[in-house]
Amino acid sequence: MEFGLSREQTMLLDSLRDMGKRERFKELAVKIDTTGEFPHSLMEKYGRMGLLGMTLSSDYGGEGLDSLTAILAIEELAKFSPMIAAPVFESNVGPVRVINLFGTDHQKEAIIPGVCKGELSVSVCMTEAEAGSDLTSLATNVEEKKDHYLLNGNKVFITGGGVASHYLVYTRFEGIKGYKGIGAVLVEKDAPGFTFGKQERFLGLRGMPSCALYFDNVKIPKENLVIQPGDFGNLMLAFDIERCGNAAMCLGIAVGAFEEAKKYAMERNAFDRPLCEFQNIQFSFADMAMKIDAARLLVYRAAAGAGKGLPSIYEASMGKCYANEMVKEVTDTALQILGGYGYSTEYPLERMLRDARAWQVAGGSLQMLKITMASMIFGRRFDQRK
Ligand SMILES: Cc1cc2nc3c(=O)[nH]c(=O)nc-3n(C[C@H](O)[C@H](O)[C@H](O)COP(=O)(O)OP(=O)(O)OC[C@H]3O[C@@H](n4cnc5c(N)ncnc54)[C@H](O)[C@@H]3O)c2cc1C
Q: Ligand 1 pocket test: which of 122, 127, 168, 236 has the largest number of ligand atoms within 8 Å of its C-beta?
């Protein structure tokens, strides 16, 4: 069992840390949260550095690296803000991986080189107003015509909505009931009949574009079929790598909060002594460090197990659940260490606490992933409808 990082991975993390200082990412994180504007300029910069195609096929301009390397990069950038890590997350562990793994040569050619350069991006579109955790009841539907599909339906909470160039839409085919009728098609942003709702306003993750999508008789060329109906399992398998990315965001936010609190505890005096000399404060830091490291080991295990492919569902679910709970606890403890200043917008802790809350809803809720783990523990499926 090898716990060390490779020389290349260490160099990558060093270069990201240097970039963070050089580009003043701490200040950028405040600006994004205050203005609610996504930092689009990062896309091209990351593209030039090869950060957007790390896990994508080298035949199409990617680097062909393993998932762990991308997870490390996401964690490192999320220490500043999950918004600063978002482009690396979306391209390396998001829906582009589905196209990379299961798409046709034509689709890969059309999408991956542009994603690697930061010119294109893809949103994953599963959730509907009446189908979130219960995804297999989704109602968006395609009808097969002679030379195209006709797409109708709505989606909600779509990250990148209105901004991404392409949308990987999970849809039912010809009204076939249950998971067997679900596949996925690729929809271009400017397709006639495709429109967007107003941008969501969330507790945290300010600056992350998100909105509802409306499909009204949208004509989809047949070559845009990415996942056949009946291959729904492939979609869910590919989603497990996104779950590792979600967990890496949690690691980054938690470490960011931990470092802020540590600096403060060494500088701030109470009763004529620095805070870090009080035993209760020391216990808080030991607890935070243990939780971060435990989450990190689970997440790295899942990502390392994935290699250049997909992780174990059990390991990815466990890593995500643990990291989702850990980041809430760590950001809350870190905020407490800063007292009133932790609650003030003058310090980043309140933002980190807000950003921490999203992850146990996004990417499959904590409860649904625990149900997945339970079915593996007991070796049987628990049908939630019965
Ligand atoms: C920041 C953010 C980004 C997102 N990005 C995307 C995106 O890019 N693409 C996309 O498709 N979706 C996205 N989503 C939507 C997200 O995937 C859903 O919100 C999530 O799957 C939960 O669905 P829901 O909101 O409909 O809640 P529901 O499914 O209605 O669940 C409500 C609550 O009940 C619990 N629950 C439901 N069923 C059970 C059960 N059987 N047993 C126990 N508890 C249960 C859930 O855990 C949850 O706590 C995003 C959400 C957020 C917050």
A: 127
Distance CA 111, CA 101 (A): 13
Shortest-distance Cα residue to atom 52 of ligand 1: 362
CA 357 to ligand 1 centroid distance, Å? 13
Residues lining ligand 1, judged by CB closer than 6 Å? 123-127, 132-134, 157-159, 205, 358, 361-362, 364-365, 367-368, 384
Q: Which of 133, 187, 242 to mutate to test the pocket of ligand 1 (most atoms within 8 A of CB)?
A: 133
Atom of ligand 1 nearest to the CA of 126: 11
Tens of pLDDT along 92-116?
999 999 999 999 999 999 999 999 9
156 alpha carbon – ligand 1 mean position (Å): 10
What is the distance in A from the centroid of ligand 1 to the CA of 133? 5
From the CA of 18, how far away is ligand 1's center (Å)?
36
- Global pTM value: 0.97
The tens digit of pLDDT for each residue in 307-335 reads 999 999 999 999 999 999 999 999 999 99
Q: Which residue has the tokens 């979609």?
A: 235
Residues 144 and 67 occupy one common structural domain: no
Cα within 13 Å of Cα(138), Cβ side: 29
Tally of domains in the chain: 3
Q: Is the residue at 1 inside a domain?
A: no
**Interstrand relation of 141-144 and 166-173 (parallel, antiparallel or unpaired):** parallel
The CATH number of the domain where 158 resides is what? 2.40.110.10
What does 280-335 look like in DSSP terms, one character per residue? Answer: HHHHHHHHHHHHHHHHHHHHHHHHHHHTTS---HHHHHHHHHHHHHHHHHHHHHHH
57 DSSP assignment: -
On whether residue 94 sits in a domain, the answer given is yes
CATH code at 286?
1.20.140.10
Q: Which domain holds residue 84?
A: 7-117
3-state secondary structure at position 191: coil
